Every structure is written in C-alpha cells, then in structure tokens.
Amino acid sequence: MPYARRVDIRIGIINTARELVLQTNAEAKELEKTVADGMATENGTIRFEDEKGHIFVVASRNLAYVELGVEKARKVGFAP
Q1: Distance (Å, rounded) from C-alpha 77 to C-alpha 80?
Q2: CA distance 49 to 25
Q3: What residues are paired with 40 via a beta bridge?
Q4: Global pTM?
Q5: Any alpha helices (H) in the chain, and if so which ranges?
C-alpha cells in the first residue's frame, strides 16, 4: 500500500484578514480539479474535507486564492 501524502490547503477569502488552513489526505490532482470546477460557475461552492473529517464549504465568489502544497518525502542519511 503506497504512503498517503498529506496535502496542505491554504485558502484566502476576500475581505478577511485570516486565511483558512487545513490538511487532507486527498490527492492533489483531485483537489485541483475540485477548485477548478467550483470556480467555473459564478455562484459555485468548493467543498473540502480535512484529515479529521471536518467539512469546509467556501463560496467561490469570495475566494482570493487557494494554495495546495504537497508534503515532500524527507531524505534519510547524510548528504555529501
């Protein structure tokens, strides 16, 4: 069974000083498609589920940005 990579999601919301930050075990490509589909319509929404099962729904018209970051595998050992 392959190791499930954690994806960090940072969402900026218009007229809000703080950003929404969550982690999920969903695939980055799947999340990218979800964001693109949600932003395709003027009154669309984007739904995210974090690794604890919490659900977040954001109206796409209020998005400033969505950042998806994949946790990179760490190298073990000594580098020359």
Answers
A1: 10
A2: 9
A3: none
A4: 0.74
A5: 28-39
Cβ atoms 4, 25 nearer than 8 A: yes
Q: How many residues does the chain have?
A: 80
Give the count of alpha carbons within 13 A of 7, CB side only.
Answer: 17
Is 4's pLDDT higher than 90?
no
Contacts of 53 (CB under 8 A, 6+ apart): none
CA dihedral 14, 19, 20, 24 (to 10 degrees): 120
Q: Measure the CA–CA gap between 77 and 64, rounded to whole angstroms.
A: 40
Domains in the chain: boundaries: 7-70
> For 26-49, what is each residue's pLDDT tens digit?
888 999 998 898 888 878 899 999
